[in-house]
Amino acid sequence: MKKQWLAMGTAVVMAMALTACGSSETAETTAAAAAETTAAAAEETEAAEETEAAAEETEAASGDAVVIRIGYENTDAEPIGQAMIHWQQLVEEQGDGSLKIELFPNSSLGTKTQLIDMMLLGEPVITIADGAFYADYGVKDMGILYGPFLFDTWDQVWNVVESDWYAEASKELEAIGLKLVASNWIYGDRHLMTKNPVVTPEDLAGLKIRVASSEIYMEGWNALGATATGIALGETYQALQTGVVEGVENPMSVLYAQSFQEVTPNLLLTSHIKNFTTWVCGVDFFNSLTPEQQELLVSTAEEAGVYNNELQEAADAEYRQMLEEAGVTVTEMTEENRAAWKEKAQAFYELGDQFGWSEGLYEKVQAAMGE
């Protein structure tokens, strides 16, 4: 506005000076020109003010955006890593800019335990986790979902996820401060990779097997006869290389992406866990979002989960081929051999009192499989 008044004042002074000289015609012409100049200056000033206001509005909107940090162990090369990028894009495309996602693969934001502790403190953090970890945080019954040889098909898995039992378990999880954002992501069939060939449960006896640092995972492998060793995924390659452990279990996509084929040349297709996974955040953080932001976060997470599952299915055959081309001996389990592994695993489900499971939990989950 100062520019506008300055321009008007200058025009008036110029008109008065010319009139005093007695040249009315020149004065009129000059006055008209001055008026045009004044109008143009006013328009420029108004345009500048509008531009500045728009810039301030954009900056404010950007500054008000909720930024969610999502940390996970996987690499961008894995199907789950690609699906995470897709999730990030979905939020950007379907949202209004008030919600943004930042991705932290390769455990670059911290370990799973560290991230869960952060979200319990109200931090805007999401991570990938499963029932074995939720059992460690107080919802004991969810641990059974990651017991060895519980599921035979993915249909059984989804029946359980959609059951009343799972809904109640999710409410228990919320009561301790953790909110499930999505539960429809396939992590993959988990298989066993070892330095020396393993085919039967007897071959596993005493072998040191790397597992996630969770009581459920560890006791599951101990029940099968191994010596379970909890090690972070990012530290496992060196542990295999140096002999700290003699085997590792995970889906083929993870096994290959972590380059375990370089140090463990034998793969037994156990499918001992039909590993679906979940994305979880803190209840306090989730409740701080608007209903629209909550809906966007959940719907895009589930949509990205469908995309992830398609990638996982397509990738299985490809990863198996790549592992074989890298020199890995792949062994499929016969029905008879699988029955022997399942029988061995029953010792795990007899530890319900140790895990704090509710009475009759195994039977409840078995019933939910067939719903």
Structure explained in plain terms:
The chain is 56% helix and 18% strand. It is of the alpha/beta class and 371 residues long. The protein has two domains: 1-18 and 27-37; 64-369, D-Maltodextrin-Binding Protein, domain 2 (3-Layer(aba) Sandwich), CATH 3.40.190.170. Strands 1, 2, 3, 4, 5, 6, 7, 8 and 9 form a nine-stranded mixed beta sheet that branches. Helix 9 (215-223) links the parallel strand 5 and strand 6. Helix 1 packs antiparallel against helix 2. 36% of the residues are buried.
CATH architecture title of the largest domain: 3-Layer(aba) Sandwich
Largest beta-sheet details? 9 strands, mixed
Overall body shape:
globular
| End-to-end separation | 72 Å
Low-confidence stretches: 1-42, 47-62
Put simply, the count of helices is 16
